[in-house]
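User: Please predict the structure of the protein below. I'd like the answer in structure-token form so I can feed it into my own downstream comparison script.

Assistant: Understood. Taking the following sequence of 272 residues as input:
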Amino acid sequence: MQYTISMGLKSYLLIFIAFLYLTVVLLMYFTQRSFLYFPNEDNYLTNETIKFNNEVVLINSTNEIALKSWFHNNNPGEKFILFLHGNAGTLKSRIYKLNAFSDLGLNFLAITWRGFSGNHGLPSEKGLYDDAISAVKWLNSNGIKSEDIIIYGESLGTAIAIEISQGSNYAGVILESPFTSIISMGKLKFPYLPIELILKDKFESMNKTSNINIPSLVLHGKDDTLVPFYMGQEIFASLKYKSRSYFVSDDHMMRFDDQMIEAIRKFVKSLD
């Protein structure tokens, strides 16, 4: 009799645990994008002063979404950076990077994503790809050739940069703090969940780098507390065409000190 009761309790306990696990999985499935996109989180540098001539423009993307963007075009004949920021915040927290581009004599278009910076829509993998492609088309329509464009991706933006660089003739691509895939990142953060089954936005960069046949520069901090440094190493190793790296002791949002700016300058110079 006691054995029967004990077996019954174990059965109920297993059912309860299975129910809890399924509840967590379903909750993660329906809320997962809130763990990936943080449009209202601006926890980087926000007190920098703009040192470049800046024109605010609207880029028309798909689904009738207009993207607020910053356009700097003061250096005729120089390369154009298409800057694709990461999964949090606004362009205000990237002013120090854009100042560096301007100091290097580069032109740039820095876009904001759908669902970010007051833009309509909700971010998704396909939506962000559409936004980046729309930005390239906008540059082309304003007389800027694709072969004069350098795609610059930061963090999540590296996945979009890799996606649109496949089979392209851009001047080059720069990847700051890249990751191999959101699947791999998800497994690190939530090892107890069936990430591959429930993930909507997978950003499988590692499966695409072999399709990139333009010069590349990979920047990654060895002390990155968000994206493991080894992922940047793996992305770099997979880029076979004229790839360069800049690996130093730094965190996820890199400092843009003189050494890093010099690495970017040398890369851009190599594209002439």
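That's the full token string. The chain is about 35% helix and 15% strand.
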